[in-house]
Structure formats: structure tokens, C-alpha cells
Amino acid sequence: RTKIAQLYADAESLGGSRVTVAGWVKSVRDMKNFGFVTLNDGSCFRDLQVVMNREDLANYDEISHQNVSAALVCTGTVKLTPDAPQPFELTAESIEVEGTSTPDYPLQKKRATVEFLRTQQHLRPRTNLFRAVFRIRSVAAASIHKFFQDRGFVYVNTPIITTSDCEGAGEMFRVTTFDPAHAPLLDDGTVDWSQDFFGKAASLTVSGQLNAENFAMAFGDVYTFGPTFRAENSNTTRHAAEFWMIEPEIAFADLNDDMDLAEDMLKFIITYVMEKCPDELNMLNKFVDKGLIERLTHVATSDFARVTYTEAIEILERAVAAGHTFEYPVSWGIDLQTEHERFLTEEHFKCPTFVTDYPAEIKAFYMRMNDDGKTVAAADCLVPGIGEIIGGSQREERLDVLERRIAELGMDEGQYKYYLDLRRFGSCKHAGFGLGFERMVMYLTGVGNIRDVIPHPRTVGNAEF
Ligand code: 4AD
Ligand code: MG
To answer: Whose atoms come closest to the Cα of 232: which ligand?
Structure first.
């Protein structure tokens, strides 16, 4: 059995050879005495044109009546066609129907909208758009492992079930074995989690960072790449309840090292995907986002902007003074909204932009306090078309400062004992970041909705399958 990808890779040397290819019908054209079947087997973006002659094929009529998406096994001879749009075709000797399809197959040739395709999650990977998106997703994942492995980082699998809220945003999905109607209660009427499976309240992780930090203090450079979950009630094009995050953590490193790593990583992913997925990117560039390839090429080869939060607020305030309107008012201390992020990266800097040193109040407890006592050593990376794609920081490595911060925020110190231990036993400057993998895939494909870069998206009100 030969894959169509192999045929394209070895086209010249395969001319005249006999091969068997199995795949799904994209179209059948019957010209009475001969006909064409366009077949795709998923091994690459391109299709195979199968030519069938009535006189060679006992079941010519059976084949010419097949519907879109029927599964066929075709054996024939590879014929080079230097003058045709495709470099070769397969002249069929025999075609077997492995599984028929029916005329009501929902994805007929005419172009379906992405909204409609979202209702066809089981079938949409068979379309050109989703074949491109999900191959790029796969290649991007491989590029991320390659980037970190080549640099000697250790891949650590952090737990999915956890008992700490890394981001402190209260957006955790509870994991419990209790039947809601019969959960044991404490005297004050709240649920007695001590009687639950883990002996305490457990949730799905929002980030692997705290666990990755443990490993960074042993291996130096580590990364996680796994699913994370957030019960954020945001029905937007860039929020999912289940998404994947890449979280490197580096020891003996500060915020600048962190941003350098993030910038190198983003450029590496883009370059790798451009090299491995030219057909997919060309298709997306043609039908989804006309500026895609130009933008990716530019990003891969030019410096990112770096600006402090305070400077960013000044830029936004100047824009307001010059007549630009934002829905959310701008003033020092606000959490940047998507519209602000997009203004900075799309209108002002016109390139990926790191915003650093955010007010401590709007960031998580673990970020390192700056000398001004007001801001923390955070760095978010904003990109055109999306906004925040990376959130990172230098971590607070000073035991006393961290203890104070945990107390100030009213967090349960006992729960963070292990985290504080890292600051007791050989603490060192360290930093890390989280890249939202789906947002990266959106950036790589030009696809505008996170629902269309996840095989089976989970968003507010939606969990099919
Ligand atoms: O900025 P966040 O919340 O950072 C953290 O979780 C840190 N613990 C990371 C670290 O330093 N190790 O999330 C990181 C990234 C965001 O920049 C965004 O790209 C993505 O995760 N993200 C989401 N992606 C899709 N849907 C959501 N609901 C997301 N929330 C965050
Ligand atoms: Mg963030």
C-alpha cells in the first residue's frame, strides 16, 4: 500500500510502477468510456487523480456511481503527466469499494461555512480547510518538542488533577466523586471535601507551572506541554475551556532570558511549519488569510517589540487623546483588554510585542516584585490578529517576599509549603512562560476562531462528543 504523500515525494522515480492506494473519494466524473476519481488519503494535502477506462475495469459502472467520501482501494500504474497541473496520475487496473457513501453525505463539494462545519465535528477533518489546520497543529506540536529537546530541556508531564489554583483566578473545574444531591456537608453548610476521593477539594489544572518549577530546580531547563482547563465564562473567539499549553521553566534566568527564549521559540515554530507545510499554508493564504505567508515570513525574521506596561498605557492614552476610542477606558492599573492589546501590536508596533512589568494587583502571586514595589516582572507577548499569545514572568525567588505576598492575598500558606520549600533549599532566579497552543495554531493558520483549530472544542455551552 502506497501513501499519496510518498507518490508526490518520489514522483519521478515512480513513473511506470504499479501501486495500490487507499483513500476517500472527493469527486467522481464519468465520461461514459472513461472517468476520473479524485482521491485523498490524508497523508498529504494533495489529491491523487485516478483515471479509469471502461474497457480495463470490470466494475466501471459501480465505481462511477460512488458518492463523495466513499472509501476505495485503487491499484494501477503511475503515469507521469508533465503537461498537466498535477505531476502524475494513476491509471487504474482495479478499484475495490471498501465502504460506500450516500448522496446525503453532509460535506458535498460546494464550500460549507465554518459555522456549519462546527456542527459536523466528526466529518470536518475531511475538508481541505481542516486537513490543513490539523496537519499544521500536528507539525507545530512536533516543532515545539524539537525546539526544546534540541536545547536540552527536559519534558515533564505535570498533573491534570490538582489541588492548587496556580493562577488564583478561581476558574477551576472541580473534580469530585460526590453526587451533588448527597454531598456531605460541614456545619456551615459547605461541602466537606475531606470526605471526597483525594481527602480535599481537587480540580482540573489551569497551568502546570508550579509543578514545572519543582523540576526546573532539579533539571535547570524544563517544559510541559499538556492540556489545561479554565471555567472562564468568556464566549469569545480565543477562549476555550480546554486548551493545551506549553510551559517552559528556566533556572538561573531572568525576564530578559525568558523573553529571548519565547521569541526564539515562536520564530522556530513558524520557520519549521513553513518548511514542512507549504501546501497547507498556500491554501490558507489563498482562502483564509491573504496576508498569512507574508506575515509569518516577516515575524520569523524580525525583532519583536518590547515595552513596559507603563509605556503601553501612555501609548494608549496618547491614542485616546488623538481621537481613538476604546470600549474600556484606559488608565494605569487596568488589565489590558483585547482591544488594547490589538491596538498595541497591530496599529502601534505592527509586530509581536512584549509588554512587561504589569501592576502586581492584576497578576498572579508568584511573579517577582520589582524594586518599585508596585509592578511585577511579567511579560506577555501580544501578536497581531489575536492579542495575548504568551503569558510569562520571572518568579519570586525570595522566601520572605513570597511569604508576605501569600499572606497579603489571604492564600492558604499550608497549601504552598512545597512551593515555599523551593525558596528554602537552593532558591535561584528563575522564569518561565505559557504559550497557548491553540492561539499559536490560529496565528499559524490565520483561522479566526479558536473553535476551528481544536479537533473537538470545549467552550461555554459546547462539548460535543
Ligand atoms: O497568561 P496565562 O494565564 O499564564 C499562565 O497560566 C502561567 N502559569 C504560564 C506560565 O508562566 N507558565 O496563560 C498562558 C497562555 C495565554 O497567554 C493564552 O495564550 C493561553 O495560555 N490561554 C488560553 N488559551 C485558550 N483559552 C483560554 N481560556 C486561555 N487562557 C489562557
Ligand atoms: Mg495571561
So the answer is: 1
Digitized pLDDT (tens) for each residue of the chain, 465 residues in all: 999 999 999 988 999 999 999 999 999 999 999 999 999 999 999 999 999 999 999 999 999 999 999 999 999 999 999 999 899 999 999 999 999 999 999 998 677 899 999 999 999 999 999 999 999 999 999 999 999 999 999 999 999 999 988 888 889 999 999 999 999 999 999 999 999 999 999 999 999 999 999 999 999 999 999 999 999 988 899 999 999 999 999 999 999 999 999 999 999 999 999 999 999 999 999 999 999 999 999 999 999 999 999 999 999 999 999 999 999 999 999 999 999 999 999 999 999 999 999 999 999 999 999 999 999 999 999 999 999 999 999 999 999 999 999 999 999 888 899 999 999 999 999 999 999 999 999 999 999 999 999 999 999 999 988
* Residue 189 region by backbone torsions, left for phi larger than 0, else alpha for psi between -120 and 50, else beta: left
252: left (phi over 0), alpha (psi -120 to 50) or beta: left
115 located within any domain: no
Q: Residue 218 corresponds to which amino acid?
A: A
State how many domains the chain has.
2
Of 209, 439, 444, 452, the one to substitute when testing ligand 1's pocket (max ligand atoms within 8 A of C-beta) is 439
User: Ligand 1 pocket, 434 CB below 6 A?
Assistant: yes
Range of the domain at 343: 125-171+206-463
C-alpha cell recorded at residue 418: 512545597
CATH number at residue 81: 2.40.50.140
Q: Which atom belonging to ligand 1 lies closest to the Cα atom of 393?
A: 11
Q: Is residue 344 one of the residues assigned to a domain?
A: yes
Instruction: Say how many Å lie between the first and final Cα of the chain, rounded.
Output: 32
Whether 120 is covered by a domain: the verdict is no
Q: Is 391 in the pocket of ligand 1 (CB under 6 A)?
A: yes
Q: Looking at the structure, do residues 141 and 272 belong to the same domain, yes or no?
A: yes
User: For residue 377, how far is its CA from the centre of ligand 2 (angstroms)?
Assistant: 13
**Euclidean distance between CA atoms 44 and 26, whole angstroms:** 14
Which whole-number Å values give the CA distances from 290 to 127, 136, 282, 299, 450, in the listed order? 19, 17, 9, 16, 19
CB 441 near ligand 1, within 6 Å: no
Rounded Cα gap, residues 174 and 161, in angstroms: 9
Q: Compute, in angstroms, the gap from residue 133 CA to the centroid of ligand 2.
A: 24
- 209 pocket-lining for ligand 1 (C-beta < 6 Å): yes
What sign for the dihedral angle of Cα 118, 123, 128, 130? positive
Q: What is the CATH number of the domain that holds 237?
A: 3.30.930.10
Residues 312 and 364 in one domain: yes
